[in-house]
Amino acid sequence: MPGYEVIGEEEKREVLEVLETGVLMRYGFDKERKGIFKVRQLEEEFSRYLGVSYALGVTSGSAALKVALTAMDICPGDEVIVPAFTFIATYEAVLEVGAIPVMADIDETLNLNPSSIKACLTPRTKAVIPVHMCGAGARIEEIVQEAKSLGLLVLEDNAQSCGGSVRGKKLGTFGHMGIFSFDYYKTITTGEGGLVVTNDKVLADRAEWYHDHGHDHDPRVSRAMEGRTILGFNFRMNELQGAVGLAQLRKLDWIIQEQRKNKARIKEMLRSVPGLKFRELVDPEGDTATFLAFNLPTEEKALTFQQALAKGGCDTVCFKNNKWHYVPNWEHFLAWSTANSQKWPFTNPGYRGVVPDYDRSRIPIAEDLLGRTLFMPISIVMPEERMQTIEQAIAQAKREI
Ligand SMILES: *Cc1c(COP(=O)(O)O)cnc(C)c1O
């Protein structure tokens, strides 16, 4: 999965260029920076790579979600539909802007089920956040179509499938806005970092203003004299992150290619396991192959298989049991334990709805399918020895189910 495996000379060279000027900030210091604008260049190269009009570097994927929801004017009292299977940051971001997340079910792609959108709809629903989990896309065309017919905004959380696509169009560019994460676990990394993308000039401007205290970034005046637009905050990406990001972006297609090769080999090893089915991919050509996901007929069989694989030195993840990626397991979220003692926004008196229940009974497909699905992380570099360990572990585990 992660770009940290291949940090090397290219990243060093980019970072050194920044250190030689001494200018670590993306804005200002025009004389000292000697024409070097790493974050700006990363935004330009990324938008070209994705085929999107605007990209904005920010401090993290979580920050990117908050900046995007703010740009989209998601307000206190609004509801936002989010799949039950996602990293907790997606839910936290909705709460950060004062809105209420509504939990939706998944489908065989393990991503947001397009038909669950209508089931979650209320007069307060403003937006939906499809999350492209574990390397592969949701049924994004159907989701965008459904959202459009219901008058909802779409924000794609593409923290986990950077470089992936559906029918030739890059994930993150289907909705009104999209976000990426470059944290240390992600397909490409800047240590911490994120990106907000959109084709809409109004949303792009609002995101840019909000992420830098409302600065209008007027190129004709110095930073101190720039105009003030809306109140914002500081989510600026710095030049060192921009530099590492540039080197990593240039490796992205190669990273995906290597992961695909490794994944294809392991997929072959698993093919003969009785009852095993692979995760449904909307478009196999656009898979980033950061994970290989497969399911067995029952939860019991899946757990037996998982333990047998682990004994053989091959670890897998069952996300139904994971503490950070499945809503029913977040006891602090379920208890409304936000960071303020008033439990806001769950207790917002201006909220006209009933706080949605996050009970397992609302997500039958996730409950069934995630419980019998195992995820094997795929690395960029997988030496022959590692492949043989996996092959032997699979052969042994097959005998135990
Ligand atoms: C990693 C991740 C985020 C948050 O990104 P950070 O850069 O770690 O803040 C958001 N959503 C999903 C689905 C993620 O996996």
Short structural summary:
The protein is α/β, with parallel strands linked by helices and 401 residues long. Helix content is 35%, strand content 12%.
Q: How many E strands?
A: 12
**Tally of contiguous helical segments:** 13
Largest sheet: 7 strands, mixed
CATH level 1 class label of the largest domain: Alpha Beta
Spans of at least 5 consecutive residues whose pLDDT stays below 50 are none
Quaternary form? single chain
Radius of gyration: 22 Å
**What hetero molecules are bound to the protein chains?**
pyridoxal-5'-phosphate
CATH superfamily of the largest domain: Type I PLP-dependent aspartate aminotransferase-like (Major domain)
- Strands of the widest sheet, in order across it, are 1-9-8-5-4-2-3
Tell me the CATH architecture of the largest domain: 3-Layer(aba) Sandwich
> Helical percent range?
25-40%
How does the overall form come out from the CA principal axes?
globular
Q: Give the domain tally.
A: 2
Mean pLDDT: 97
CATH topology of the largest domain: Aspartate Aminotransferase, domain 2
- Structural class determined from secondary elements: alpha/beta
Report the order of strands and helices: HHEHEHEHEHEEEEEHHHEEHHHEH
What is the CA-CA span between the terminal residues? 28 Å
Strand content: 5-15%
Task: Describe this protein's structure.
The protein has 401 residues and is α/β, with parallel strands linked by helices. The chain has two domains: 250 residues, Type I PLP-dependent aspartate aminotransferase-like (Major domain) (Aspartate Aminotransferase, domain 2); 107 residues, Aspartate Aminotransferase, domain 1 (Alpha-Beta Complex), CATH 3.90.1150.10. Strand 4, helix 6 and strand 5 form a beta-alpha-beta unit. Helix 2 packs parallel to helix 8. The structure holds pyridoxal-5'-phosphate. The site of pyridoxal-5'-phosphate has 14 residues, from helix 3 and helix 4.
